[in-house]
Design goal:
two-stranded antiparallel ribbon; 181 residues; elongated; five-stranded antiparallel β-sheet
């Protein structure tokens, strides 16, 4: 059952489950450690045929559930041990069978859906951080005014030190010439 739809004439079911393992190599040692990071969502691929007078209505309902993109309840005897309650329809393929009226082949790819955890009510950050930032800014602003007067006080040194770079380059050239370079 996929929500309120009974999947007619399911011909084949294939499951795909993968575990996520992280390999950690230890410096100076042979071998490695494997860390189990859990499993990826289980995927099911179902192939079936819908026929009869209700087949077109079944196909419309199935396509509407796919287009909605919402997780739907899922129940199947074959995967009862997997503890899968809701599935998301990842892919839907429909084909009207030629020469056979009111018969449709369908293929569904379903992925196990887990509900994300709600954030906890406890604040993750220090709530007084804004107050600390404001007090730091209040202490910094008067220093900026002092910096402007310092920069304008350096103007009197511009003329005497203006040609310092040219004099240093001439001195370097003279030293290199005296060494014979």
């Amino acid at each position: 059952m996929l929500d309120d739809l009974e999947l007619p004439e399911v011909q084949e079911i294939a499951t795909a489950e993968r575990r996520v393992l992280a390999e950690h190599k230890l410096p100076g040692m042979e071998g490695s450690l494997l860390q189990n990071l859990g499993r990826r969502p289980t995927r099911l691929v179902l192939w079936g045929i819908a026929g009869g007078p209700d087949a077109a209505e079944f196909v419309e309902k199935l396509e509407a559930k796919f287009r909605a993109g919402q997780p739907v309840p899922f129940a199947a005897d074959i995967i009862a041990d997997a503890e899968i309650d809701t599935m998301l329809i990842e892919n839907l393929q429909l084909q009207e069978l030629a020469g056979k009226p009111e018969r449709f082949a369908y293929a569904l790819t379903l992925r196990d859906h887990t509900t994300p955890l709600e954030p906890s009510d406890a604040p993750a950050l220090d709530t007084d951080i804004l107050g600390e930032a404001q007090s730091l800014m209040d202490a910094l602003v008067p220093g900026l005014d002092l910096g402007l007067s310092f920069a304008s006080g350096l103007e009197r040194f511009v003329a005497p030190l203006g040609d310092l770079l040219a004099r240093l380059q001439q001195f370097r050239d003279a030293v290199e010439h005296a060494r014979g370079h």
